[in-house]
Amino acid sequence: MMPVMHSKPFLRLLALLVIGISCYSTNAGAGAFEDDEACLMCHKYIRMARITEEGVFRSYYVPPNTFSKTVHRNVPCRDCHGYIKQLPHRKVEEGVRCDQECHSKKNPATGKPFSHKTIYNLYADSVHARDKNATGLDSDKPYCITCHTNPVYNPNEVEPPKEILDRCELCHEKRDFVKQWYFHTSRRVLDVKRTGQEIVAICIRCHADQELIERHKNAADEEGRPLGDKFTIAATSYQKSFHGKVTRYGLAGAATCLDCHADNSQYYKGVHKILPSRNPESPVSQQNRVKTCQRCHENADANYAFVDPHPSFDEEFNPILHKAEAIYGVVGEVVVLALVGLSLFETLGRRRDGVGWRLRRGSTWWRRSRRYRNRIIPR
Ligand code: HEC
Ligand code: HEC
Ligand code: HEC
Ligand code: HEC
Ligand code: HEC
Ligand code: HEC
Ligand code: HEC
């Protein structure tokens, strides 16, 4: 349950919070959330919202009970909203950057302040790299919060098995501690990965946006910067492909965007470091394509990998297929027309003969005919 969200951050937050409240409002959290920084003094009020000059509704409401169930519930507000230095605070103009270091959380493995820098650095090398407050063309690219909200900590939160907690408690002595760590790990062991359809939805949100595509195509042409051949039709062509259709009808296992464009030998790293196909490191580069198909199509060879995963019958991409499709289109229509016409003539002819419709013994055409071609039910 990881909803794909819309472009406005506040809507995203709001939607999540609303979902969260409705599902979890009666449930006590794993580790109650403490408002040491007094942010909720103001932000706990549901009415805390306004309509901006552009007419956009913005909510500044942070429901404590929901926040305390999210993955970031143990991160103090100002570890993320570090630009707030005093209370009451000034108008906020900066955004939250996802490569910041937490002041109050240490990575237990390294002892250093926790951060998402590992992921951020991969992302910084990817085609989608941009700055938090990017403007212009770069602002079209996805930032972390384009794909991630602040999801509830454990979507299927059920009481952990007593035998396991009893065993952990034997050494760790504190029930709350072991329970929290049990959840921490089990969340990652449980499969909370997005479904194929959700992944496609994330990518096509931009890659099917014709205006965005045109902006980038034009800019690239002007700058003499390369873009992949299939850049302009990536999403539409995928949806026409075998993989796309199969995924759309809900079958798991057919290749989604990330099965091909992310290095699946290190999936969680790979999804953050998407490279263009012209980069030899990309799993869909000429060098790696066969290997990528072989993950699922064991017997794939260079010929198999030659099958275009972004097929297009457009003249620009495939003039021969384009003509063939046009011809088949005409042939198809003629055949249908001819069939309909034939039945029509046949029906008219029989009606003129005075033959009536009556369903009996497998035929609708039982009647004495004017032209001595009787079709009478034998008794
Ligand atoms: C005294 C009341 C008050 C307190 C305490 C308070 N805020 Fe706010 N906050 C506001 C108001 C009012 C707004 C709406 C400002 C506006 O309309 O631009 C706001 C807006 C915000 C925004 C959104 C700004 C934007 O335009 O994107 C953030 C983020 C925020 N507060 C974080 C915090 C954090 C973190 C704390 C605790 C360290 C905190 N606030 C404490 C009153 C408060
Ligand atoms: C893990 C980091 C993180 C933590 C912890 C966090 N926030 Fe946020 N918050 C964000 C992000 C990201 C946004 C979206 C705006 C942005 O990108 O700057 C946001 C947005 C907001 C907004 C503005 C909504 C809007 O319309 O833009 C408010 C208000 C807010 N947070 C308050 C709080 C309060 C109060 C807390 C503590 C209870 C808190 N946040 C904890 C990351 C965080
Ligand atoms: C284009 C979309 C996209 C962008 C941008 C993105 N991610 Fe991800 N992220 C994913 C996908 C897909 C997964 C794999 C999990 C899944 O399938 O839901 C993932 C997984 C993760 C995970 C592992 C979650 C877990 O609990 O196992 C973390 C942490 C993460 N991303 C952080 C980030 C950060 C930080 C950034 C910004 C530097 C970022 N992501 C940018 C799509 C994205
Ligand atoms: C036989 C005793 C024992 C049992 C049983 C046990 N632990 Fe531990 N655990 C330890 C010891 C000792 C350490 C410190 C290890 C070290 O520093 O090498 C530790 C460390 C940890 C840490 C790392 C804490 C930190 O901040 O570094 C976590 C988390 C943890 N255990 C969780 C669990 C969970 C969850 C269970 C049950 C599934 C469990 N443990 C069962 C003895 C145990
Ligand atoms: C928020 C919008 C957005 C989302 C979401 C998004 N992309 Fe992109 N993508 C872009 C933009 C913008 C470019 C850069 C075009 C340029 O270089 O001008 C790009 C570039 C690319 C390129 C390289 C194009 C080239 O020829 O250089 C690939 C491959 C790609 N994206 C794949 C994906 C995949 C796979 C996903 C889903 C996980 C995804 N994108 C999600 C906006 C997005
Ligand atoms: C079966 C593997 C496969 C799947 C699934 C797939 N792609 Fe591709 N994609 C490729 C290959 C191979 C190329 C290079 C094709 C070429 O240049 O002829 C490519 C090219 C692209 C390009 C042009 C930029 C570049 O790197 O050449 C974009 C953008 C893109 N794909 C996005 C997507 C998106 C978005 C999805 C999901 C909606 C998707 N792809 C699904 C294999 C795949
Ligand atoms: C994540 C797994 C996965 C990857 C990676 C993948 N495919 Fe597929 N592909 C499938 C599945 C599943 C089907 C439907 C299987 C079936 O029923 O035959 C399919 C079907 C096809 C078909 C339809 C005909 C057939 O052989 O069944 C073609 C063609 C195809 N894939 C080509 C490719 C090519 C080329 C690549 C590499 C660029 C590729 N695939 C990568 C999973 C994948």
Protein described:
- This protein is mostly helical.
- The protein folds into 3 domains: 9-155, no CATH class; 205-305, no CATH class; 328-365.
- 42% of the residues lie in helices and 6% in strands.
- The chain is built from 17 helices and 6 strands.
- It has helices at residues 9-24, 40-43, 64-67, 77-80, 117-124, 144-147, 162-172, 175-189, 196-207, 210-223, 234-240, 242-248, 257-261, 267-270, 289-294, 302-305, 319-352; strands at residues 49-51, 57-59, 101-106, 113-115, 357-360, 363-365.
- It has a two-stranded antiparallel ribbon. A two-stranded antiparallel sheet has the order 3-4. The protein has a two-stranded antiparallel ribbon with strand order 5-6.
- A hairpin with a 2-residue loop joins strand 5 (357-360) and strand 6 (363-365).
- Helix 7 (162-172) crosses helix 8 (175-189) and helix 11 crosses helix 12.
- The chain is elongated and about 100 Å long.
- The chain starts with 8 loop residues before the first helix and ends in a 14-residue tail after the last strand.
- Bound molecules: heme C (7 copies).
- One heme C is lined by residues 37-39, 41-43, 50, 60, 77-78, 81, 84, 87-89, 91-92.
